[in-house]
Specification:
The protein is mainly α and 148 residues long. It has three helices and two strands, in the order ββααα. A two-stranded antiparallel sheet has the order 1-2. It is elongated, with a radius of gyration of 22 Å.
Length: 148
């Protein structure tokens, strides 16, 4: 056992009143007894939703850091760090977005925050497209300067 105790409690929203229910116990909000099979499926869906939320949040933060790396690549002192980070993130972001879609595209949730989760993934892809276009334009500009 580690320093922090872990508990294997599965929770899910009550199908009747949306209060949080602990698997194997009645709802504290309305007293509904949820069947074990339904409770297990609802808890598994809730866990999957939490994983999708965390992955999408991490993805959007990473995508936003692509712009930071692009900016760093323009500064003389940290240019190399910015270029390496920018190139690495140009590969990482679409791979992570593809993984998110592979795992969670079919996820159905009536959670009010779920549209925000899908929005984070779309935002990540849009940032990546803008960063890719900017890098192509920058490369073309540099090549034209070298040739002239």
């Amino acid at each position: 056992m580690g320093i922090v105790p872990t508990y294997d409690l599965q929770t899910f929203p009550c199908p009747q009143c949306r209060a949080t229910v602990v698997e194997g116990r009645p709802c504290k909000g309305c007293g509904l007894e949820v069947e074990p099979a339904v409770a297990a499926e609802a808890a598994a869906n809730r866990t999957r939703y939490i994983e999708a939320f965390a992955h999408a949040h991490s993805l959007v933060i990473t995508a936003r850091s692509v712009l930071l790396m692009l900016g760093l690549s323009l500064l003389p002192i940290v240019r190399l760090i910015g270029l390496v980070g920018f190139i690495a993130l140009l590969v990482w972001v679409p791979g992570s977005a593809a993984l998110w879609f592979k795992r969670y595209a079919t996820l159905k949730s009536d959670d009010p925050e779920y549209p925000q989760v899908r929005g984070w993934v779309r935002e990540s892809i849009m940032i990546w497209v803008v960063a890719l276009a900017a890098s192509i334009a920058w490369f073309a500009f540099i090549q034209s300067r070298i040739q002239s």
